[in-house]
Amino acid sequence: MKEQIVSILEQVTKLLQKVEDTLKTNGINIPVENIPLKPEEKIKIPKGYIRKANDFRDEYNLLWIIGSEDVAANLAYALQTTDLFNYFINRFDIGLSVGKIFYKLAIINAFSVIEGIIYSFVDNMHEQCKDFEGNICRLNAKCSFYFKRANKYKFSELLDMLRKRQIITFSEDEKELVLSIKNLRDNIHIWDVRENEFQSDLYNLKNYNTVIKILHYFKKEFPKNVKLFLDNKKKTCKLEYW
Fold this sequence. Notes:
Elements lengths: L1 H24 L27 H7 L2 H5 L2 H23 L4 H32 L27 H10 L7 H14 L19 H16 L1 H15 L6
Helix pairs in contact: 2-4, 4-5, 5-7, 5-8
């Protein structure tokens, strides 16, 4: 099968190159110039490769965990974009410095989903510690189920807090790995990066695969841990609506 796929991809490569050669032959200065094409005239991403947003909502239990339809939708769209990055990484040999930056963008997008799930979950839990009038439960100081708003914590503090409550079950080494990937994600601001990203060896397939594995954890294990946490909370919570 692989030989057949490689042969087809070689034909696709030649056809794509023929498009650009034809444009140049006709005096089009690509990529500065281009011919106008309607959406239906452009190359199509193969149907079925990028999953539907609702698939991600269901697979990650987004609405239940987060409690906000808008945030769940935004995370689902970002997860769709991970499929798009996945497509190009597995079908195109991008190479050169631009290939490293492409991996950077893929890592940033995937880790932004992880951050979004964590922060949004904590905010959802905070809201559940309010009564019907919007007041924080007066027992919060001694309650192990109480969460402040997510913006009150540093990311590393969130990880430690969720690990302490068994909502995230990372080992210390796994936590440090997550934090190392977060450092890559934090390089989103080009003006604040203190290294030559074109020469960096941090934006690569290995680190991309690492962040995807972390993302899968939040699909497979995180919802189960959240359920256990909430089941225990219901047994002891004094708020009226429980």
